[in-house]
Write a structure and sequence with these properties.
Blueprint lengths: L1 H53 L2 H22 L3 H49 L6 H22 L3 H53 L2 H22 L3 H45 L5 H22 L3 H23 L4
Helix pairs in contact: 1-2, 1-3, 2-3, 3-4, 3-5, 4-5, 5-6, 5-7, 6-7, 7-8, 7-9, 8-9
Length: 343
């Protein structure tokens, strides 16, 4: 009997304690949770307006989760499960705030993507204007491919698919910069060509005067080759074949230099010939006609000089130098003979 009475009292006490908790909820706790629910509703409503205006898909999904959590929180509140209601409405509020953040990030990302698209368009336009007028299949193909990529990027942008938009936009920008870099290299090559073209032209003018004075056929031939290569370089440059133009210009300079060296070599030979000839003529006036030995030696000098003259006129510089050396040696031998009393 005592055990039954004790069990009854324990049950009654627990019931009284539970009743006092419910009474507590109906005052302060209920009002507090209701205010939390109302605050969450305000944030969700604000997020709905922002999500609709931004049209951000990820933010819309997050807001939907917030709405469902808030609905569950209100259900718990209706059942007076205040602890669960309060916990779930706070989760709903965090999701709504997250949706707002995603909207801002989407708007910022959209702005970044838009600016990049516009920049890609500007670069492609610059690339188009910088491309050479002549046919350049490689650069034209790069440009057309970049243009197609940019058009597709705009389509993805309008569909709010920003990842493929950025990928294609970056490809277009890379292609535009490749074209611009190639064009800049061509500009530098053009400037380099013009500078060298002017310098080689001055060299050819100077060599032309020298060749005219020395009268060397070989030098004239080399100069003619230089002039042809010089003219060809201009034609190639006008066709935007700058590498070939620079090579032709280099050849023109080399030919002009060779022509100049040829004249310098012949000039030296001519001066040496004139010196030996003058000296031989001077001795010829001093030698007695009866001195047969001296006359014979002098004739050898004249024979070598005549041979040298022939080789010089034929631009055979090595043979001419050898003949002049022989004339020099014969002339010295004659001098020694005359010096020893053979006058």
């Amino acid at each position: 009997m005592k055990k039954e009475i004790l069990k009854y009292l324990l049950t009654a006490g627990l019931t009284a304690l539970f009743a006092s908790g419910v009474l507590g909820q109906t005052t302060a706790q209920i009002n507090r949770v209701r205010k939390e629910l109302e605050r969450t509703d305000e944030i969700i409503d604000r997020a709905k307006e922002t999500v609709v205006s931004s049209n951000a898909l990820v933010a819309a999904v997050t807001l939907k989760q917030a709405t469902e959590l808030q609905r569950g929180a209100k259900e718990w509140f209706g059942k007076r499960r205040l602890l669960m209601a309060n916990k779930q409405t706070l989760k709903a509020r965090e999701q709504a705030k997250k949706a707002l953040v995603l909207c801002r990030l989407t708007e910022q990302g959209e702005t970044v993507v838009l600016r990049k698209l516009e920049r890609a368009g500007e670069l492609l336009e610059q690339a188009k204007e910088s491309m050479p007028l002549g046919p350049d299949g490689r650069l034209r193909a790069i440009y057309e491919s970049a243009k197609d990529n940019l058009n597709r990027a705009w389509e993805f942008y309008r569909a709010q698919q920003y990842r493929p938009t950025l990928k294609l936009t970056n490809q277009a920008i890379k292609a535009a910069r490749e074209i611009l870099n190639a064009s800049n290299r061509d500009i530098r090559k053009h400037a380099d060509f013009e500078r060298r073209y002017e310098a080689v032209g001055e060299t050819i003018d100077k060599v032309r005067e020298k060749v005219t004075e020395c009268g060397s056929e070989a030098a004239s031939g080399l100069l003619e080759q230089a002039i042809k290569a010089y003219q060809l370089s201009r034609e190639l440059a006008s066709q935007d074949k700058l590498d070939a133009a620079l090579q032709s210009l280099q050849k023109a300079r080399q030919m002009a230099v060779e022509a100049s060296k040829n004249c310098e070599g012949l000039g030296s030979l001519n001066r040496r010939y004139d010196g030996l000839k003058n000296e031989a003529d001077h001795l010829n006036e001093a030698i007695s006609r009866n001195n047969e030995t001296a006359q014979k030696m002098l004739n050898q000098v004249y024979d070598q000089l005549e041979l040298a003259r022939k080789y010089i006129d034929q631009n055979q510089t090595e043979a001419a130098a050898a003949a002049l050396k022989a004339a020099y040696l014969s002339l010295n031998q004659l001098k020694r003979h005359l010096g020893s009393g053979g006058m």
